[in-house]
Amino acid sequence: MRSPATEARDLEFRLLGQVEVLANGVPVPLGGAGVRRLLALLVLEANQVVGRGRIADVLWEDEPPSTARTIIQGYVSKLRKLLGAHAPGDRVEIITRSSGYQLRVDHDLVDLRRATALIDRARGLPPAGRAELLAEALRLWRGPVLGGVKAGRLEHVVYELEELRLVALEDRIAADLELGRHADLVVELSGLLARHPFRERMVSQLVLALYRSGRRATALSTFQDFTARLADELGIDPGPQLRALHERVVGDDPTLHWAPAVSEQGAVPRRPAQLPPSPAGFTGREREIAALDALLVGRDERPSPVIATLVGAAGVGKSALAVTWSRLVSPEFPDGQLFAGLHGFDPEHPAAEPTQVLRKFLIALGVAPEAVPIEEDERVALYRSLLAGRRMLVLLDDARDSEQVRPLLPGDSGSLVLVTSRRRLGGLAVSVGASVLTLDTLPESEAVRIIEAAAGERAAREAVSLRVLAQLCGGLPLALRIVAARLVVNPDRSAADLVAELSDERDRLAALDTDDDEISVRGVFDVSYRHLSEQAAMLFRLTGLVPGREVTPLSMAAMAGIEPSAARRGLRSLAAAHLIAEQRLDRFVMHDLLRLHGREKARTDMSERDRASARRQLVSFYLATADLARRSIRPAGDELSFPAEPGHRLPEVDTPAKALEWFDAELGNLIELQRGLLEDGHDTEGWVLPRLMLNFLSARCLVDEWVTMHRRALPATDRLADRHAEVTTRIGLTVALARANRHAEALEQAMAARTAAKALGSARDIGTTTANVGMVLMELARYPDALSYVDEALRLAEECGDTLNQASCTLNLGFIKKALGDIDSAVERLRRGIELSRRTGDRETLALGLVWLGEAMIELGDCEAAQRLFGEALEIAEHIGVPIEQARARRGLGDVALANGEVRTATAEWSRALELFERLGLAEVETVRGRLSALSGSGKP
After folding, report:
1. What is the mean pLDDT of residues 573-597?
2. Alpha-carbon distance 149 to 40, whole Å?
3. pTM above 0.85, yes or no
4. What is the DSSP annotation of 316-333?
5. Helix locations, 312-443, DSSP H
6. Nearest CA-CA partner of 674 in 730, 636, 716
């Protein structure tokens, strides 16, 4: 009988070469390229949920087909059948999650996981054990990684895994050099350098192997050849380690000759305690501290040390949290605590070299300065040997990248390493399984606590100003500390004075400056900015020109004149540097202070012409997308048209759901865009934008935004002396005020719009504004007056061929007739209005007409017909995402249910309608609430 371990390896997933699945050592047919690529992605992220958006991005990059979801489901189904045939039971399975799919599999079945586990186990072992485990890991690479699969979005993974292989290979060679196998390594290293001519560590190893083999002249020649190649092809010199080795070979340094590896026997054990003092005024961060505490659970059972990265934007308090927590848990590490400031983003100091940090650590651990090895590999080996079996905490602050950190990692369990950085350090997560904790700004309650503590006894009387100060700092701990210090240093200055200084966005960063760039908000932001690539820096500047807080690859591509894929890469580079945050797929949010910094950089590093061009492109992008999206919700009803600019890629908004989703996501940006347009004197775009948003605002019943944007647009139409713009804006404002139950104001606007339309002489505009007057009078229950205006509006609409207005006027006449008791005429009008709405494609008006006709059918006693009408109205309203018509349809279904004696159904439908009406803040709330109250008081079951 086979053991479970043997049985488990009957199935094997292989990524380190040709992508394949082996069953009992035989490759399993995987099917087409899409299935293979999906399998590769699921195996790479084994035991994690892979979102459908991520899958589509990997399979099709920027152009997923409309049937992407169905295709992905088909691929998953094929993989499930394949795995089910060769892995019965639940040892390997693909699980469907709400957001995507998860391949649940034992890591031992994946060659990549076995390789990384072997590499991890090798750390800290004596050279013989290290060489053996690394050689075993390297044998798992069978050729180019992800062979047979188009890399595309996975190209970075291919690079990282190839780099992991080369680093493991160099580590194995280093172990062999410690074992005295230099003669055997000369041939191997010569062949490797032919394929990887710029691997400086390999050059060092070959020079050392040649020297130890008695070939000193060849060793020097190898160095000179490499130096010449670097100069000719890259224009640089060798690094300091290789140059130092060359000098030692030239000087025939006797310590270069092979000797058994340095052991810790020559070291005097010490218990270092290098943590900095806890920062003053630290508060909050309970959730993050709990997450760090969780790292300590079960660490003794793990085969490798616990490694965690604390990442976040400049000034967010990473170092303060890391030091505070490290001091809190220092009793858990009785063998000591090591600390190194790596100066990864320090404007005053160069980034610390790992070999120098290792020297300091070794001396702190008891190694005599003269006994510290010269070679970095040997320092790493000794460092890991000294930490083996000990419980140490290693805090590495302000890391530049993963490569700076890797040599400083212990080899075995018991120790914990905490790294802080402004970058994500994804390489550590891939290569050593580091946990990642992203530090965000402080919530308002914690930010206020910091400010109040600084204010002391005046906190109570200046509570409002202190809260505003916390909000102006955006929860950024550095900004809060600066403001708190100003309150302490200037007790005679009121918090209101400081609020006034910070309220002007143009001067806010200057107000948060100090004499020391390291504790200046602008200073720490500048350091992050200087470390960006040219394209990422350009995109950061452009974010400062965006009126709102969110950007997307498509909007930034339009501003920058680049491809969306390039914009996406640049934005993710900014996110990796924590200068922006990708809150959900392809939507990036800017912190207020960072946005102001981007605006400063745009002002200082861009010409006025380039800034104006970028803003113009952004406005064109938004107008074109809003115009396209509104037509997917309802017919436009006007002559406005804004086609996309050449080169602009617009979002997919070709269905009501997609259009509403885009408007929902961009609402804040669009509101701020209109404000910015009007402030900058772009009055035409300023009044047009709310018109393009009208269908969305109506569908979502966003009356506050609706009223605000249209009121803001009216003065612009006056400045333009554009009567048509005035009429259009007043029409939108009339409907918004009516929806908000502000009927007196709505009637005033409707009359003013009608007067302006008559002055303009446009029959279509006169008809629309007359219909609006009738609509408001109808809602005021002034039915005879309403009938006169709506009759006139219908006549004008028929003369102009305005079928949209014909449909709504006909339905309004039906409603008025029903209210006046003429039910037969009402039904005739309502049916005619419904027919016209179907013809125009105005589904929102159609849904309303179906509701009104359903209510008429109840009056006529035809509940069966009423139920059909309400059901169709509900289906349409749900499809186009219009909650007000959903609520009205459910109210009607409740009425039908009660008429049929179905009390429970009536209660359920009215309750759902009430929830919707309450959410929308509409007057119908009282009607439905009254029906439910009457029903509950009736005692009916």
Report:
1. 80
2. 8
3. no
4. S-HHHHHHHHHHHHGGG-
5. 318-329, 354-364, 376-387, 402-405, 426-432
6. 716
